[in-house]
Amino acid sequence: MSLFKKQDSEFRHRHIGPGANDTRAMLQTIGVGSLEELINKTVPASIRMQHALNLPEAISENEYLKLVKEMSLKNKTYKNYIGQGYYDTITPSVILRNVFENPGWYTQYTPYQAEISQGRLESLLNFQTMVSDLTGLPIANASLLDEATAAAEAMAMIFHHVNKTDNIERPKFFVDEDIFPQTKDVLVTRAAPIAVELVYGSYKTAAIDSSYCGAIVQYPNDKGSIEDYRGFINKVHDAGGYVAMATDLLALTLLTSPGELGADVAIGSAQRFGVPLGFGGPHAAFFSAKDDFKRNMPGRIIGVSIDAQGNRALRMALQTREQHIKREKATSNICTAQALLANMAAMYAVFHGPQGLKEIAERIAILTQTVAESIEERGFDLVSDNYFDTITVEVDDSKPIKEKAERQQINLRYTSNTLIGISIDETTTIDDLYDLINCFENDIDPVAFDIEDDDEPRHIPLSLSRNSAYLTHPVFNIHRSESQVMRYIKQLENKDLSLNTSMISLGSCTMKLNAATEMIPLSWSHWAKMHPFAPADQTKGYQQMINELSDYLCEITAFDACSLQPNSGAQGEYAGLLTIKAYHESRGDHHRNVVLIPISAHGTNPASAVMAGMKVVVVKALENGYIDVEDLKAKAAQYSKDLSGIMITYPSTYGVYEETVKEITDIIHQHGGQVYMDGANMNAQVGLTAPGLIGADVCHLNLHKTFAIPHGGGGPGMGPICVKEHLKPYLPGHCSLEVTHNRLPVTGNNAVSAAPYGSASILLISYGYTRMLGSEGVKTATEYAILNANYMRARLKNAYDILYTNHNGECAHEFIVDLRPFKRSAEIEAEDVAKRLIDYGFHAPTMSFPVPGTIMIEPTESEDKAELDRFCDALLSIREEIKAIEEGRADKKDNPLKNAPHTQHVVTANEWDHAYSRQEAAFPLYYVTLNKFWPSVARVNNTHGDRNLICTCEPIESYMEAEA
Ligand SMILES: Cc1ncc(COP(=O)(O)O)c(C=O)c1O
User: Fold this and answer.
1) DSSP string computed for 819-847
2) pTM of the entire structure?
3) pLDDT tens, residue by residue, 280-318
4) Among protein residues, the one whose CA lies closest to atom 8 of ligand 1
């Protein structure tokens, strides 16, 4: 290889862990002669891709940064006053550097292992407290995907709460005409499949009766007007319904809270709390509600509990509500949400405190009224005299004003030919107002205005001014200096195990390297500062990246078109199922609503199917984990007439490439159904096979798994869908602007996300991943993912039962270790092993999915042999610890597994009355002494927290250590 070619492919060796020597040794342990032989023995020949992927050649990291810089300059950073739910904001540098750009925060996984997640759990509790305080409602969750989907979740929650049985007595849901168009758009998409009847109108004249389950209004509304909804809320309550209020956290620092107005649910976006626009995301949506709804809330709720020592400890609460337990009975399919962005927003509130937030809001309100009054002086009327940051100006013809604005590189919101919206944000300066007002000038009189030092917002009605306190907890009041904030962020980070500590081998979650070069461009202003509804001629850089990435994903999946709109895997499932539904309907097959789902499927699959209005029929699995083809045949035949399709995961969630997959997809097609492939395991396919080759019609890709987007502690993510040609016309559209799906422009109102390209800015990560690895590199990554998994399997197979391998005894990119036998032999449960791994410095693999009492290990290609060996050594050492219990050498109750994890406090306490030593507890292997990670709490008590739900910051005394 020439020196220059070598340089171009250097990223491959940074991304993939094992080098040549490692590879040789690992192949030997597995017992195969070459990587090629391993792949041949693992991936069925019948589905192998016979050609090289037609992707660009790899480029070096340096070349990539140059390329993506040039591309970014095709995005024009005009001054935005578009608003509509997206506002420019100042990310405090201390948060940018220490959270947004810090792998200690962005590479975290969803906090299932609470003992090593206390930092982000605390920050998410701060987020919930902030939302609960500002909205005046007691229960808040730890983020949703975006404002529009949060509104749809509120609608669905209210609908299901009121209509408890299949007999829907109150199908109507009132939508005030003045909510954001993108929110309406998603409500339309989400209402129809679950039989909600949307009724539009003005809340002022709406006649609400007992056929309504509820209503949604926006505060301040789409036109910026602050309306008093108290009368309307009473009307809905009198009729037995509930009210959801879309709102704005910054406005609520000055306005009476939704809870005080009587609203039952509040939703919105926390984007303007320091999270860059990013052409639509990622941003954290919020959701809060009255106590009645706590068991029906969508998304994660962080709750306070205690640990084994009786100390305060946090964890995810009420998980039995969620799709992974409730499956088709869940009211929402939310899995990945927006944890990282919720943490940023919470830190923004910690950084500014209540007073700082109020001052920002007041500055914005004063600048807005200055603009408003100046424009009125020039003879224009405003739609409302009550406003916070947004005004809507009535004009005869918006065209000349638009031309003037564009000449000054200003974007206003052109709601119609006669209505112009202007939203002021935190970045707007007094100087900016001259240009802004000038757009409405006659070009003769100079713009002049005065802002007095003691000016106050004058357009917030007294009856709606905020009197109640918020953010009174010390956490929002003691971190004022940068040193304090920096140390607080670091203190929390230190409590969490992230990829910068050790491998996180979560089966089905693909915690691979999130390379620094992939991440760096996200903070560049030409990517970060783009408004999702900016005119198309200003977003050429994004368009190029989006079009090229869509093409790559189509090539990789062997499909024909791609939609980058869904902003999580579960949203992708939902969007994919809707394309199937629309396709059947286009052929007059309205009745086709049965979807077959294997028993091993992820909980989001049945939950998404129900949201798409489908009926779930479960297909059995065989002993070896394969789909039971006979059962499938019988069920496909039984439901033939009504068959909509099947949802399969490939390789299956059991970690094997089923040889029968083509037979399965053929059976479904013979009965007129469509095949949906869950792409969570795509890291075992890229370059070797493809959904299009195994007979699927549509799939989603979790870009936050296979394509290197970090998990962010529970989000962000992106779940684009790719489809075959015949499904292309049914891909998601968007009301606000044309979206393109592989160059096909789509408009219309079947959006699944608030922004046309979902969390667009993080698409850059997947783009960088593909460009730097290139055609060969992405395939090699898959091969090494399979190598690493099989190496670990080979090292562990004599100590543990490995479930479900193929007829050659190989696994795919992940494998399941059976821990159930130890329950009988030593009273040891999977949870004990998971917690003991923490003492060895590791995050546990996926627990009890898809098989209860097991762990599923997915090492990914990014781990080198030494790290894999440390992990295997830990598991082998744990096996010896179990053996000691089995053989009576260790006590069944008092042993290192049952007492795990061991905190520093416990290990260094004066008393130590265990039968094993402190060293065995905390430093069980030599490598641990070199890089010890201490859990900050002992084993967390889950039931205590659910029985005593607390999901906001408690008084400071409860942080103190329990009395001995
Ligand atoms: C097999 C499978 N399907 C679907 C999902 C849902 O993806 P997301 O969390 O992005 O919504 C997951 C998530 O872990 C998964 O493992």
Assistant:
1) -THHHHHHS--HHHHHHHHHHTT-B--EE
2) 0.97
3) 999 999 999 999 999 999 999 999 999 999 999 999 998
4) 569
Residue 228, both tokens: 């008093």
How many other C-beta atoms lie within 10 A of the C-beta of residue 75?
A: 24
Beta bridge partners of 854: 818
Strand 594-598 to 561-563 pairing: unpaired
CA neighbor of 442 nearest in space, from 374, 370, 369: 374
Could you report how far apart the first and last alpha carbons of the chain are, in Å?
Answer: 67
Q: Examine the pLDDT at 963 and tell me if it is beyond 60.
A: no
pLDDT surpasses 50 at 617: yes
| Six-digit token string for 507 | 């089966």
Q: Distance between CA 673 and CA 644 in Å, rounded?
A: 5
Alpha-carbon separation of residue 834 from 34, 310, 926 (angstroms): 33, 21, 20
Which residue in this structure is represented by tokens 């499904």?
727
What are the phi and psi torsion angles at 685 (to 5°)? -115, -35
What DSSP assignment string belongs to 116-135?
GBHHHHHHHHHHHHHHHHHH
Report CA(500)–ligand 1 centroid distance (Å): 23
Alpha-carbon gap, residue 73 to 124, rounded angstroms: 35
Report DSSP letters for 781-794, one per residue. Answer: HHHHHHHHHHHHHH
Dump pLDDT digits (tens) for 686-716.
999 999 999 999 999 999 999 999 999 999 9
User: What would the two tokens of residue 213 be?
Assistant: 């389950």
Probe residue for ligand 1, chosen from 112, 144, 145, 508 as the CB with the greatest number of ligand atoms within 8 Å: 508
CA-based R_g, the chain, Å: 28
- Residues at CB less than 6 angstroms from ligand 1: 335-336, 508-509, 568-570, 602, 604, 649, 653, 678, 680, 702, 717, 719
**Residue indicated by tokens 């900050």:** 936
Phi and psi angles of residue 514, each rounded to the nearest 5 degrees, phi first: -110, 90
| Residue of 112, 153, 322, 336 with the most ligand 1 atoms within 8 Å of its CB, for mutation | 336
Instruction: Give the residue, 761 or 737, on which the prediction is more confident.
Output: 761
Of 736, 750, 651, nearest in space to 691 by CA:
651
Helix axes 61-72, 540-557, angle to 10 degrees: 130
Distance 704 CA to ligand 1 centre (A): 10
Buried b / exposed e along 229-240 (16+ C-beta atoms within 10 A): beebbebbeebe
**How many CA atoms does the CB half-sphere of 621 hold within 13 Å?**
19
Best of 602, 851, 858 to mutate for ligand 1, by most ligand atoms within 8 A of CB? 602
Nearest-angstrom CA–CA distance, 820 and 485:
45
pLDDT at residue 346, as a whole number: 98
pLDDT at 595 over 90: yes
CA distance 918 to 906: 9
Q: Is 419 helix (H, G, I), strand (E, B) or coil?
A: strand
Determine which helix (DSSP H) or strand (DSSP E) holds 266, and give its type and residue range.
Answer: strand 265-269
Copy the structure tokens of residue 623.
């002993």
Give the integer Cα–Cα distance in Å for 652 and 871.
24
pLDDT of 747 over the 70 cut: no
> pLDDT tens across 524-573, in order?
999 999 999 999 999 999 999 999 999 999 999 999 999 999 999 999 99
Q: Report the DSSP beta bridge partners of residue 174.
A: 199, 215
CB 567 within 8 A of CB 716: yes
Nearest atom (ligand 1) to Cα of 849: 16
As a whole number, the mean pLDDT across the chain is: 95
Q: Find the 791 Cα to ligand 1 centroid distance in Å.
A: 25
pLDDT grade, residue 276 (50/70/90)? very high
- The full DSSP string for 877-904 is HHHHHHHHHHTTSS-SSSSTTTTPSPPH
Report residue 195: phi and psi, to 5°: 70, 30
Rounded to the nearest 10°, the torsion over CA 529, 533, 536, 542 is 40
- Residue 201 token pair: 């109108």
For β-strands 197-201 and 301-306, DSSP reports them as unpaired
